[in-house]
Predict the structure.
Amino acid sequence: MDIMKMTQVDLERISIKGFPEIIYGLHKTTQQILDVALKLDAANQPVMITKLSFDKWKELEDKLPNGFYFESSQIWYSRPFPTMKNGKVLVLSAGTSDYKVVEEAAVVCQWMGCQTDTIQDVGVAGLGRLLGKLENLREASVIIVVAGMEGALPSVVFGLVSVPVIAVPTSVGYGANLDGLTTLLAMTTSCSSGISVVNIDNGFGAAYQASLILKLMNQA
Amino acid sequence: MDIMKMTQVDLERISIKGFPEIIYGLHKTTQQILDVALKLDAANQPVMITKLSFDKWKELEDKLPNGFYFESSQIWYSRPFPTMKNGKVLVLSAGTSDYKVVEEAAVVCQWMGCQTDTIQDVGVAGLGRLLGKLENLREASVIIVVAGMEGALPSVVFGLVSVPVIAVPTSVGYGANLDGLTTLLAMTTSCSSGISVVNIDNGFGAAYQASLILKLMNQA
Amino acid sequence: MDIMKMTQVDLERISIKGFPEIIYGLHKTTQQILDVALKLDAANQPVMITKLSFDKWKELEDKLPNGFYFESSQIWYSRPFPTMKNGKVLVLSAGTSDYKVVEEAAVVCQWMGCQTDTIQDVGVAGLGRLLGKLENLREASVIIVVAGMEGALPSVVFGLVSVPVIAVPTSVGYGANLDGLTTLLAMTTSCSSGISVVNIDNGFGAAYQASLILKLMNQA
Amino acid sequence: MDIMKMTQVDLERISIKGFPEIIYGLHKTTQQILDVALKLDAANQPVMITKLSFDKWKELEDKLPNGFYFESSQIWYSRPFPTMKNGKVLVLSAGTSDYKVVEEAAVVCQWMGCQTDTIQDVGVAGLGRLLGKLENLREASVIIVVAGMEGALPSVVFGLVSVPVIAVPTSVGYGANLDGLTTLLAMTTSCSSGISVVNIDNGFGAAYQASLILKLMNQA
Amino acid sequence: MDIMKMTQVDLERISIKGFPEIIYGLHKTTQQILDVALKLDAANQPVMITKLSFDKWKELEDKLPNGFYFESSQIWYSRPFPTMKNGKVLVLSAGTSDYKVVEEAAVVCQWMGCQTDTIQDVGVAGLGRLLGKLENLREASVIIVVAGMEGALPSVVFGLVSVPVIAVPTSVGYGANLDGLTTLLAMTTSCSSGISVVNIDNGFGAAYQASLILKLMNQA
Amino acid sequence: MDIMKMTQVDLERISIKGFPEIIYGLHKTTQQILDVALKLDAANQPVMITKLSFDKWKELEDKLPNGFYFESSQIWYSRPFPTMKNGKVLVLSAGTSDYKVVEEAAVVCQWMGCQTDTIQDVGVAGLGRLLGKLENLREASVIIVVAGMEGALPSVVFGLVSVPVIAVPTSVGYGANLDGLTTLLAMTTSCSSGISVVNIDNGFGAAYQASLILKLMNQA
Amino acid sequence: MDIMKMTQVDLERISIKGFPEIIYGLHKTTQQILDVALKLDAANQPVMITKLSFDKWKELEDKLPNGFYFESSQIWYSRPFPTMKNGKVLVLSAGTSDYKVVEEAAVVCQWMGCQTDTIQDVGVAGLGRLLGKLENLREASVIIVVAGMEGALPSVVFGLVSVPVIAVPTSVGYGANLDGLTTLLAMTTSCSSGISVVNIDNGFGAAYQASLILKLMNQA
Amino acid sequence: MDIMKMTQVDLERISIKGFPEIIYGLHKTTQQILDVALKLDAANQPVMITKLSFDKWKELEDKLPNGFYFESSQIWYSRPFPTMKNGKVLVLSAGTSDYKVVEEAAVVCQWMGCQTDTIQDVGVAGLGRLLGKLENLREASVIIVVAGMEGALPSVVFGLVSVPVIAVPTSVGYGANLDGLTTLLAMTTSCSSGISVVNIDNGFGAAYQASLILKLMNQA
């Protein structure tokens, strides 16, 4: 249809925010994704595409510039930002089933220049696993806690450390879990008031926030 | 209105269930409550009234048989059942604000003949408080865990013990707590699968279930 | 991704809880499932995998140790715990459509060492079917009641017996059933206060709780 | 404000529907209520006002024509329709707390000319009470079943009779009851498919439907 | 699994309710459906199966007794009840998209012995279509109104007639329709108080209720 | 607290939007309201305050500039904009109980310079009342339809006219009405697609939109 | 089934509303769609079919009269109405993912005779894109704002212009977006009170409303 | 009741987290509040009580140690932590009605030692107000954005800065706002992915998180 205009790429975002526009691939066609990716790359900006399904990536693989694809987390990026000296982000998860979201968070943190580590499968049903990692927890500057079901892990973790905790509810669960909505609401109403929360399965968002915090530390 | 019949008292319940009909006072008039109470008492059955507000109790005080009123938990009973020899119910709570529900559970357990104890204010935001009570936890035969907000405590407790845990969500919290609905759904979708849950603020229901479990132990 | 750590198996859970970690298969890859299963088996612990789809089982069949697969309930286990002498768990259901959840509960009870029986298809729309089984009901020590739709069966059953009733809402129904959420909420707000409830379709959780109750009886 | 027009009374409704406009008093001012009542009365139509609080009634008492006020159900009417010869409506309730809604239904049925009876407090937690009334149930032509909490009673009643059952969910309950919404949804998803349902606490609506059914019987 | 008992057929229902158990096919296996169907047929009872998908029917076609399959409404029945002399049920719908539910209601009414007619596609967006059918509306004894989206049709129809109206919300719509939940709630809170409502897409339930009303008329 | 800055008045809004900032009084203190009102008045802009309770108005009455207070709709304004020559807004309501919202819409339309009229109490339960006003409906340029409960009126009205219809759901109703949320969702999913909807009880918003439409007509 | 009547086409709608019945294709069979389309075409009325999937269109392509199919927006029409002289509708979107809804709105506007333009991908996360189009915004007579996720764009746009803004929530988003329900509710509770809202993804409804506004301008 | 144990104060929290236990006053009795406050004070820890209503404060005023009470935000504290040298927290709000939450956030930030500033009433309906403060925004290290209604402000602000943004939804709004739940969900599904969110009206939680971030900057 002739009056339908082209996608607009926000090339100035990098100068305002320190990071470029990131392409959210979920509802876009491969052509729409490619258009934005090439324009960002042409402007010499690092490119990141999130929620890029394996099938879409296969279609795009030959047309995109050099880069890396992470299949579990459905992320592609061209090249990461330089690693920051100070601080570390730790991505923690309650269960093995949260793997994809953990990887999404970790990949984004690394891309944004964070020293990053992960500890998986330390949910509160077997507290020993978490308490055995207390030292690792206390070395981190920011902790991203990924959990599904009742979302209890961030409350417990935040009680054990003195740094910001960002909680990521996941859609792991069934029935009363309501596809993660219960997890989201539970984390938001945590008794460990002081946690902040991002959208369900939004490892990307938590990583972005964590990276901005590390950037502040490195500027200070 | 002449076709409106009188309340029916279920005097046979005690022979079927081992416990008499218990009067749920919330939506009843004092006259309706009194009618049932007197009929149960006349049949020589122990009487318990739950959700009996202080004002209603004041109206009824002189008309009811001898008994005990618990103001926080809004329970009145005439006389308890004999104490059972084996087992103990422990009522645990996340925060001081859960006091009323804890008392409701404890009063009902005692009335039904359970050895009963309580530990309050051991929420997961400061895990040390709970871990310091591990021995007490492991002495109990059944644990009732009362918690509001994100309702994480039952998940953690159940991971530490080998006995049945009954979770009572409370309406303590605000905003995303949705008057305890979030707590209820979170507990129901706990990663410590094996917990069972009762209605919001329903200390009575949890105590009833716990008492039936103790009765089984004492019959065995 | 190199910073993604391996799954952690909780080998100590059996000493704390009397039962080992049970593998929740729904969101895990077959590789993740196999890793945990083999580690538990190597530690000489009985292995159970729940929500293991037929397809995943087919992939794993040759790699797992000897065991049993239950297709309707999607459970695999290596070997059951020894049967306990005292008490019996009865799994009751409202309709034939609840079959899978009934099987899940029954398989888990048997695995955990419970004497177990089932009565299916005794929903309240034809009360005669239930009343005809009154003796069977009264022989049980714990009753698991599985029902979908409006979830009325546990309320009725609990009025007929003097033992603990654990209600399992199922997602059987449509429209206002809201995939079982209505059933869950209805059971939680039962007029037969004293019932406890587990998550939608969570036959496993109810069986776990029931087995712990039988264990108490056998220890007493 | 001058452009705000007067209330319009629907004086023709009685010729279309057999019954006049009924005044829903909840959100109206006493002046608005009185205007409509007097116009209906002037047109020689029987007048009924529902949800008329005691305070509003006190304000209106001297200005309204002769009539009857029912305090529990907050209904006022001037005079009933003549009683129909055939059929009987039975209003049944689960608990004493449903009293107000039962009275609302019974008063409206009587006003619309139905032979009417009530049985209260026969909830499913003690099934004996209901089964003891089986003959009364089977004499009725239409049964209105009023219940709060999990709303199981209509499902059970409908399985015992061969006549239409209209279910009225009430807001009796707390927590997961969600002010009657759970009851409404549960009744709507009843396993006794064939029940129809009206709004929460809407004894009036059920009575209206029941009366139309009796009218059909009397016309046939 | 050996402790899983067979399906129980409720052969006595026909003597209590005047109609036999009806087989709800949605969640049942073809074998489970067939078992019940053959037992009912062997007891010389008319058999009806609802929510029987085309694929399941194809599997069963040769094994079932003679009968009729209605593809749109997914109903199969062996033989209808004799037609009642008095009264008529009219099934009305708002839009062509409600076709399946209309057919379900009409088939069930005919099976239960009702004189039945349908008028489709008379939604309130073009009121002329409905007003042009006013005579047909006023000939009916009971009207089933099937509508999706905002569910306004029953409110309008009920204002035009003097007989019982049973509303069937459908899942026709999108977005704020919430798969018919909005329609259900809207119909339940209709300003034409006196309508009763059944579950979403539950043409069967409405037909059952309508048929019981016609039966009352024919018995009178 | 010293770092808490003063309220900011948006004096430039009138030049951008043609209308000044309007003061939403619900959550503001009288002092906050007064500050903004006086600044707008000092800038020679017409002032309007919405959701100004009677009590707050009484406190402010002597301090505000000359103006008009409408008690039902809780609006105060200093002076209206000049009346536009072309077009007319008609505010229509389903029931007398919607009075306050109708007045809010009408007052705002008049203030913004619209020729305005109202027709109340023409809900769909008695269609004759609406059809009797068809000419008035067809004289309007824009119609605001105010309705509670199932919110059917806008669907019906929009089918009868050829001009824009703006629907205002009200919180009139109870139970399944969910304080107007059902009404809002129902109107949004109207079969008369082409209606637009504003917030519950938001007569103001509908009037604002209607006035902008009339302004377009008068500019053309 | 013989009593199932044919679809009714509303041929008079064009004379009442100025536009013919528009065929909502989502739940209809191709045969039902074709019947209505041919009857409208035979009556010499322009035909439009919405939500016509590509597969359905392929089935119908040869049987429909000449016309145009828009694949993204799933619309087919035979011929547009003549273009109106005055005014312009601008369709604005927050993100590229909203493309389909934008096209739906634009196609419908053009069909109904509006001068139409679009600006896509100007969401509030990069405000510069929107502010750079301020002139285009201020040339429009009506603005349709299409946005998913938190739906902030209409609030911002409405603050920048003096014409009616119609907001279309889209289902673009995930998790807490609740398939667009959050977007719908957020837009409805906008701080820029005066916006009106249509159903989720309902570009058609917004375009219809916008076109009626342009028609008023052209009649004035 | 004798088995009800005393409140437990978590005196070790300050050594783990750097900040002491903070007393959440909403559901506690004044005696419970006082007990904890005095124990913390006796341990020489700064004391803060949140959600302390004016009435409760009046009761406690003479018994508490010296300190400061903030009436709008219902906070009392004994003495603040020393001010940190680096960084600044900016608390921004959409409207004057968000005042209380802004004050809560600002008071807590100051107590925790943050340089703190506020800008109120810069909601997106009049974008000029926000854009006029761009320099202030860009001086902050962390921005807390407080907004009710559709919660659009954090999305816009985050697009303008390069530092972490923490969003606080407020319950300011009505109808579709659902007491802030819509605001919470909208903020969580923001198109400016990278924002984190706290509970409704939880200025405290946002301030706590912001202060931890500033602490990281000051440690680096």
